[in-house]
Design a protein that fits this description.
Number of strands: 11
Distance between the termini: 27 Å
Strand content: 5-15%
Helix content: 25-40%
Structural class: alpha/beta
Shape: elongated
Strand order of the largest sheet: 7-6-8-9-10-11
Radius of gyration: 22 Å
Length: 320
Amino acid sequence: MSLPIVVFLDRSTIPPHIEFPHLPFDHQWIEYDTTEPDQIVERLSQAQIVITNKVVLDRRTLVHLPNLELIAVCATGFNNIDIDYCQQVDIAVANVRGYATQSVPEHVIAMMFALRRNLMGYHQDIAAGEWQRKQQFCFFTHSIGDIAGATFGVIGSGELGQATALLAKSLGMNVIFSERKGAAKCREGYLSFEQVLMLSDVLSLHCPLNQQTRNLIGTKELAQMKPDAILINTGRGGLVDESALVKVLQEKSIGGAGVDVFSQEPADENNPLIANCDLPNLLLTPHVAWGSDSSIQKLANILMDNITAFKQGSRKNRVL
């Protein structure tokens, strides 16, 4: 009997120094740094288990892979997998959860401090010679806001939203949670979506991307925010209308924005945020909020545990 084949389609999405624990069953391991759409079927033709981070496995591809038994997603989001088709043909799907509850909140708080205190703006002014022109021991070209006592609004109250809220509370912030947009009534402990927009000094997005949340924050919503409010998105790029966000940043209608996720990744110069990355009130990072070494190692451990559980006939972090 041949050994089960495990194929990792996009190993390069994980830093090379992160070690994946050895699977405790006999198998053949094959990994590729990257995989193009036209290479998927050939590379998975004999595979029983596939690991993917961002490679798309849709119906058109999966229909050609009758040997496939498990899709192990090397991430939490699984919108790159055709879940309906997997359910039809009994392909199991597992994802990784709860691995970034330290990394993402710390990234949010780091962005918040940088934007609230206008660190980027001051750095750019020094580089442009503003200090020399002022001829003073210091200069104030941007407002500097405190964190303690400010209101921190959270949209998305899952693990990451709750962990970020806890960190914000430890800094002396007043934390409020948003009810779902358009909800007829608010659950206990939640304020309406509109109230959170209007009350937040810092608004942090932690909700999934779906039909209901796409462009959750657009022109109308940005207009409801405080003129010095900060928007931070470490959730999904499609949650925010990027063009609308750039417009209010240019007009200084809000205080600033920290963005770790984009409508298309990798983003290029055609993306409005990339095209305007020199704005002093805009801070961009390349989808790395989740990526502290400890969090990625935890992800790798959970991923392999998911595969082991599947082979042992138990369900762990199963989507299907």
